[in-house]
Amino acid sequence: FISRSPVRLPPAGSRWPILNRLESLTKGKAILYRVYQKQLSDNKPYLLRGIFGDSIVLPPSMLEWLVSQPESHLSAKSAQMDALNIPLTFLRAEIGLNPVHEPLIRRNLTAHLDQITSHIWDEVGLVLEELWGQDTEVWREVNLDYTIRHVVARASNRVFVGGELCRNNDYIESSLRYVSRVSACGLLLNFFPSWLRHYLGVLFQIPIRVAYSQCSKHLLPIFSELTGSEAASCTHLFSSWLVNNSKKYPLSSLERTPDYLSRRIMALNFASIHTTTLTTCNLLLDIFSDRTTASLLRDESLVSSASWNTTWNRGRLNQMLRLDSALRESLRLWGLVAKAMSRKVMQPAGIILPSGQRLLQGTTVCVSGWGLHHDENVHQQPFEFIHDRFMRRSTHGASPSQEETEMGTSAGHAAAETDVNFAAWGIGKHACPGRFFAVDLIKIILIHVLVDYEVELLGERPENMWIEYNVIPPPATTVSIRRRKLSV
Ligand code: HEM
């Protein structure tokens, strides 16, 4: 039986929409988990009301169906554009509507990771030294979110725009301001009805415009130079791939101007800085809350340093199976996808779910990523951080082959792998294209911290914060650190 009319779905929390929205502010985790548990037995979709908008949570059994739907039926792009009001906050809708930077991330960035590993290694070392210092005697208290955010911004921009600009403080500070203003304004606009957002958007855009103009002061000359030359030469920089490929992709002449190309770099900054910072902070908090884990991971880093010396490539990073597993485990516990794989119904006639219910055009659907990642039928002790949970074959006997190591594909699950029980990167064709870069960058940051610094163990893992259905490490968390003495 297929229902042709939209069906009223059971609400995920209280029956009163307003109470439900307010509840979502503080009880997002509980609501998502409860819905998931109910869905394991009743297999029904639920209506999830939130302060930033409503969506339908599909049962885990419909995950594969969700992934298999074409973009013309269930659109990931439109859901992303709506969630952050991208046409208003990115200032130019084309950047979101025509995301040519995505194939460049998939092809060029991922293909060049081997060559850029050593640049990222150097940059992370430099910026950590600036922010965490070189004093081997005195302990100092550093704010984790602030310092890691700067490390991520510098190292990412080393690859996006090169060594000179990434070390320009004004550019990095303006980029960080741009990124946080886009997220804050994008989310805040969701408080208002859609007809009002367009008008309010003009006001909300002012601080974003100011931050962008501060960034573009630095970016425009780079793109003017690159677009003026025959072929942008540097093969390791995203900005040159963008210019070299701008004729290949369907870009209007306007979109090929330095201004639009600069805006694409800011879109990359937006995609990479928050996500990578929060993931790195979560991992650091997980590791430094447990003495044994911290010491096992440090030992692994030291063994790697002893056998690879100064060589930095992906083979080296992929061999650090313990660190790889710890990262995947931290993403499982705290992944930014508590509400995962949001998609918007595009067809005017709506869409019919496998359960026979019809959802109207414009509805947003998702799955409970939090439930999926904490399902005890899939993961034993799902609320515990077990750093070697995903450790691959070499520890259980056979060593992975050289090829498997280099590809990061030896049996088990590598941190960047997607699968139906792991939604931290999304699943299917919209799975995060920057995940291979992000994983390498996070590992490099961790190795620097483990080898170069002493970090005082945290008494217990600081509680993460829930803001509606989003979970983040507490931004005020500090850790006590000092530089390690060089062992002679
Ligand atoms: C630890 C860091 C990161 C996490 C946890 C993360 C997570 C995600 C997730 C969950 C999605 C949505 C997938 C979906 O809807 O199915 C996504 C999409 C995306 N991410 Fe990442 N990401 C990270 C880093 C990055 C970096 C460094 C870049 C760029 C270099 C990037 C670029 C993108 C882009 C362009 C998309 C949109 C893909 C599409 O819609 O087809 N991400 N990411």
TrEMBL record:
GO terms of molecular function: heme binding; iron ion binding; monooxygenase activity; oxidoreductase activity, acting on paired donors, with incorporation or reduction of molecular oxygen
Alphabetized UniProt keyword annotations: Heme, Iron, Metal-binding, Monooxygenase, Oxidoreductase, Signal
Name of a matching Pfam family: p450
InterPro entries the UniProt entry points to: Cyt_P450 (IPR001128), Cyt_P450_CS (IPR017972), Cyt_P450_E_grp-IV (IPR002403), Cyt_P450_sf (IPR036396)
Cofactor(s) required, per the database record: heme
Residues that coordinate or bind heme: C432
Stored PROSITE patterns: CYTOCHROME_P450
Keyword Iron: yes
Keyword Nucleotide-binding: no
Family classification: Belongs to the cytochrome P450 family.
Protein name, per record: Cytochrome P450
Lineage: Eukaryota, Fungi, Dikarya, Ascomycota, Pezizomycotina
